[in-house]
Model the fold of this input.
Amino acid sequence: MRATEEKDKGMIFNIQRFSIHDGPGIRTTVFMKGCPLKCLWCSNPESQDFFPNLMVRDINCRGCGACVVSCPEGAIAFDREGGRRLDWSKCNHCLRCVDSCIYHSLNACGRYMTVMEVVEEILKDEDFYRNSGGGMTVSGGEALWQYRFVADLLEACKQMGLHTALDTSGYSSWEKMFHVLKHTDLVLFDIKHLDLKKHREITGVGNSLILENLTRTAQQKRIWLRMPVIQGFNDADEHILRVADLGKRIGAEKVSLLPYHEGGKSKCIQLGRKYGCPEAKTPDDEHLQRLKNLIVAAGIDVTIGN
Done:
């Protein structure tokens, strides 16, 4: 396995330009790699590991066999009838097969970048930020688990006059979170479920630390609450009203309802994993509108999708 950290660099798995769903205006969203939560429905399962890992796109394979030769663990085999077969139990993500594949059928997810390399990408769309009231959002994975790099990145953006936002689960020590918040204009705070047991069952961690950090963050920063809405898990009226009450109590500017989507299923196939929540469903539009009306009636603004 390749080294999992490099001095003064951050592990990033995507930089998404022209984003309109991660804060106000047109933004660039920087996705940090590594997350302590293991949400079963995760739409970006490639973000969970704290090291670069292999993603496979069989549709691009031309059957040249170079990957078979390059793999030191013998994890890849090929025959003309069955095509390429990868034994994920043998793969150690050394990524030598990626270096050998000229057809981009085998790809590395995650790369180390310096703050200035990321800033150079962000500044390509500076005019769009100015005209739309946008800026830069740092997301994940969980950005707080690379808090030093993230704080330096946010500070660099602030020095250039850009609006900054942090999208976070809040699962981190307060000391790390406080360090990052110094350079953050807006916090997009993710809420999975307010029930401790249900939260632990589907994310792998409890929510006590998350809710504590939410309360402390709201005392000093603008907050948007964001909740993935999964049918039968967290979309009951009672739970939605609890979320609305929480938002009012901490002074959140709004609640964002994010309808569940199945994007993580195909990515799990590319990662050689089983999708953790195959029974998950998206609430229909009528139900989402009803949930929105409940929150509005409780006295807090709400949007669907951002």
User: Anything to note?
Assistant: The CA atoms of residues 56 and 66 lie 14 Å apart.
